[in-house]
Amino acid sequence: MHLRRRSLLTAPLLVPAYARAQAQGVELSVQYSIPELFRGLMEDVAAAFMRANPGIRISFRAPEQGYEEILQRNLRDAITRTLPDVAFHGLNRQRTLAERDIPVDLGPLMRQDPQIAAQGYSESLLSLGQVGGKQTGIGFSLSTPILYYNADLVRRAGGDPDKLPTSWQEVAALARAIHGSAENVTGMFFDWTITGNWSWQGLVFSHGGTMMNADETRVAFGEEPGRRGMRALRMLVDEGRMPDIRPATMFSDMFAGRMGISMQSTAQLGRYNREIGGRFRLVCGRYPLSAPNARLPAGGNVGMIFTRDAQKQAAAWQFVKFATGPIGATMMVKHTGYMPATTIPAQREDMLAPFYRENPNHMVTFRQQDVITGWYAFPGQNALKITDVINDHLQSVVAKRAEPDAALEVMARDVTGLLPRQRS
Q1: Which of 250, 298, 302, 334 has its CA 20 to 30 A from that of 20?
Q2: In angstroms, how far is CA 145 from the centroid of its own chain?
Q3: Helix (H, G, I), strand (E, B) or coil at 304
Q4: Tens of pLDDT along 217-254?
């Protein structure tokens, strides 16, 4: 019923609703997460939007710490009918929201908007915001996993910063050479803790595997590609001397010049640049691909509209369009290391073309678009719990409490027990 009502918004109705919003004044409540990455950016985007749209006021709710936290918050909000008008959710959490019919389908709004072509949205990146044939969200910030290298430590260990490793075996060997090359120097850290099992999916997909089979009747990450991925993680510990530390320690060591290699999201590139300053030369390299059919999961978040009020919905669409369009995307890239869903800024000299020429590290994620795939979301009510279960088993392998194959077998069994029961 909600979907039908939303689909009745037509172009003649949308324009007057937006005009009324501007004339009468509308306040939109907006929520996002990961404030250490997005707070300053969101405030700048909102300020620019309000200058261009003086009749619409953006009011931010307190940001949540991560994608899991904002999902839990908004699921509770749906029950109490206190949802924000707009929210920015992780790509892999769209499915849980869509299963509960919370987001507005943006497809009709896009088709009715005569200015949509000027947004320059990439069809391939738009597809990452689609669930069940509906445009659940539009990409605000999109990322891929990459490797960050301290070029000075790489060179000191006998490596070549201009010829970086292409396999996990080479990464582990370089990390081992870096480890202990100077006092308090650590070789590497692979951040397996990244939200929503993103890092685990990167290991499985890059070895040619999937999370589940095609019809989602069986867990598939326990098969050979998953075994190879889990063994690669353990190899980084055993051969690469990777310590069992928390990401906060990794960031501190990397920024201070005490770590040689870190695997992280391109989302963190702006932070790396700011924190490192001129302390050492930072070089980014592609994520190793370990199979002919290798893929990498797209990370990041999408702008979603939750409000059912026609006037607010029209204003919300203008804000989402602004944030994800050329102006918002230009601001987003300069604040972070994400790539946008619009192709226009990279082509314009007054936007991002000079920035990309001067900052080649930001181009690494673009070079990985040929292998990008969706950030998988497990079905059913236990999607968040599955995330925790997988993380617990990965921790056991990193901490050497369990062997890779044995941990993977138990992980697959535990996840299977949390999936929706198949109807006979």
Answers
A1: 302
A2: 9
A3: strand
A4: 999 999 999 999 999 999 999 999 999 999 999 999 99
SS3 category, 126: helix
Q: Are residues 216 and 130 located together in one domain of the fold? A: no
- Do 397 and 260 share a structural domain? yes
Q: Residues near 40 by Cβ (< 8 Å), separated by ≥ 6?
A: 335
Within 10 angstroms of residue 378's Cβ, the number of other Cβ atoms is 24
High-pLDDT (> 70) share of the chain, %? 94
- Residue 421 confidence class, pLDDT cut points 50, 70, 90: confident
Separation CA 418–CA 65 (nearest Å): 25
Number of domains in the chain: 2
Q: Residue 22 belongs to a domain with what CATH number?
A: 3.40.190.10
Which residues, at least 6 apart from 195, have a Cβ–Cβ distance to it below 8 Å?
Answer: 66, 67, 68, 90, 387
At 114-129, the pLDDT tens digits run 999 999 998 888 999 9
Tell me, yes or no, whether 199 and 253 share the same domain: yes
Whole-number Cα distances in Å, 19 to 13, 55, 108, 116, 203:
10, 9, 18, 18, 49
SS3 53: coil
Let me know whether 26 and 84 are in one domain.
Answer: yes
In this structure, are 130 and 199 located in the same domain?
Answer: no
Encoded tokens for 265 = 């999201």
**Where in the sequence is the domain holding 176, given as residue range(s)?**
145-297+378-418
Output the furthest CA–CA distance in the chain (Å, rounded).
69
My answer on whether 138 and 173 are in the same domain is: no
Q: Is residue 42 in a domain?
A: yes
Round to whole Å and give the CA distance between 218 and 422.
10
What is the reported pTM? 0.87
